Amino acid sequence: MEDGKVLFIPNAIPGDIVTARVLKNKKSYAEGKLIEVTTPSPTRVEPFCQHFGVCGGCKWQMLPYELQLQYKQQQVTDQLKRIGHVDLPEIQTILGSPETTNYRNKLEFTFCTHKYRTAEELAAAEGEELQPEPALGFHAPGFFDKVVPVMECHLQPEPTNTLLSVLREYTTKHNLPYYDHKAHTGWLRNIMIRVARTGEVLVNLIIKKDNKEQREAMLAHISENVPGITSLHYTINPKVNDSIHDLDVHLYSGKGYIEEILEDYRFMISPKSFFQTNTYQAEALYRVTRDFAGLTGDEVLYDLYCGTGSIGIFCSAKAKRVIGIELVEDAIIDAKKNAALNNIEHCDFYAGDVASICTDEFFEKHGRPDVIITDPPRAGMHEKLVQQLLKMRAPKIVYVSCNPATQARDLALLCEDYNITRLQPVDMFPHTHHIENVALLELK
Predict the structure, then answer these.
(1) Angle of helix 404-414 versus helix 65-79 axis, rounded to 10
(2) Which of 139, 141, 172, 313 reaches 20 to 30 Å from 53, CA-CA?
């Protein structure tokens, strides 16, 4: 911009000459909307998805993957330096994903009474009043009550696209009401799909209220017309929000869960389980974490934010003992099942707040940590937990982050007593700006 501000324009890349409209003009930056690419950058490539630029996912498709990795590497460097203001070792070269399409093991699609209409569709209507159309797909960016119809998604392998096609045809034929996110009416809400590398597939149909006749007929149709589903469920969600963590999931057919493999370890994944959504890169991420931990077989390893125990179990062969701590009780139940599935007896999992659990009495019983692995959500660690880690004084902390900005903030606090000795970015989500980063901290 003429005043020297940076203008952020989605779907434009460095080197493009574009026509854009400024939508927000902030003090230090501005946000705009791409109107036209008048002269494309020589590095620009043709997006592979018909929904590019509309659905809001895979926003970096027009960038070659090699360039995406370069920008992500720079993003980690900039955020750690600008926010953390701490001494950094050389940042290792980012690990790219071996699969850049069909890499997600979990997706959720939404049934909605209001299809999102593009500017081109609205212009073509020439002012005539358009009636709402139902849509099955992803929420349009910035709209909680409109959905972009997804005809083909490249994020997840089959049977996902087959299932979407079967659902559209069946619900249209039987005139089944989609959910209205403003009026909170309708019956069909969401469909969640998990596809494992083992070939197992889990599907959860989420409806607003129970109608046994319609539900049974629809689930039977899915089961008969979508090959490969090994675990089929339904959930009744009468709430305003879409979260199902506090709801019962009902099994219609199958064993109730699917199994995934990371190296030689097997993991049970139920409808509400957390599991890294890129299985290929989960292995890479966990190998980096295990390598940074430097386990020799004599260490007590604490796995914080352990979820269903995947990192701790993955590192267990080289640890004397693994202590996993997680706030969500259902996740701890799954973690214990996963340890039993792999015949691991030296992993213990506890539900609760880390600061409350990690007392002197707890350390006396289970041992003080030699290595701590922490894998918090995007918001990072609460400052109270950071202070707790400083009190625990483990010789090593391995910090796995899905948000280098909040990681940088936490590292600045931890560097009161620790030095950052290794850094490794890992790309879990090709064609997006998201990036994981692993940091090794060693006690001064």
Answers:
(1) 30
(2) 172
Terminal Cα-to-Cα distance of the chain (whole angstroms): 46
Work out the widest C-alpha separation in the chain, in whole angstroms: 74
Instruction: Kindly report each contact of residues 141-147 with a partner whose C-beta sits within 8 Å and lies 24 or more positions away, as own/partner.
Output: 141/56, 143/116, 144/181, 145/112, 145/114, 145/180, 145/181, 145/182, 146/112, 146/114, 146/115, 146/116, 147/110, 147/111, 147/112, 147/114, 147/115, 147/116
Q: How far apart are CA 337 and CA 308, in angstroms?
A: 9
Q: Strand, coil or helix: what is 331?
A: helix
Provide the H-helix boundaries in 316-419.
329-341, 354-357, 360-366, 383-392, 404-414
Active-site residue identified among 49, 315, 347, 402: 402
- Report pLDDT for 4: 58
Rg of the chain (C-alpha set): 24
Q: Shortest CA distance to 111 belongs to which of 34, 186, 30, 22?
A: 186
55 is catalytic: no
Q: Is 425 helix (H, G, I), strand (E, B) or coil?
A: strand
Closest listed residue to residue 315, CA positions, set 425, 205, 396? 396
Q: How far apart are alpha carbons 287 and 259 in whole angstroms?
A: 20
Q: What is the pLDDT of residues 319-370, one digit of tens each?
A: 999 999 998 888 899 999 999 999 999 999 999 988 788 888 888 888 899 9
Reported residue count of the chain is 444
Q: How far apart are CA 210 and CA 208, in angstroms?
A: 7
Per-residue model confidence as pLDDT tens digits over 289-322: 999 999 999 999 999 999 999 999 999 999 999 9
Whether the CB-CB separation of 86 and 415 falls below 8 Å is answered with yes
> Helix (H, G, I), strand (E, B), or coil: what is residue 218?
helix
Do 36 and 46 form a contact (C-beta atoms < 8 A)?
A: no
**How far is it, in rounded angstroms, from Cα 256 to Cα 200?**
11
For position 2, what pLDDT does the model report? 57
What single-letter amino acid sits at 91?
I
Strands 188-195 and 371-374 turn out to be unpaired
Record the pTM.
Answer: 0.91
Specify the residue for token string 């099994």: 251
86 burial type by CB count under 10 A (0-12 exposed, 13-18 middle, 19+ buried): middle
Using 50 as the pLDDT threshold, list the residues of the chain that sit under it.
none
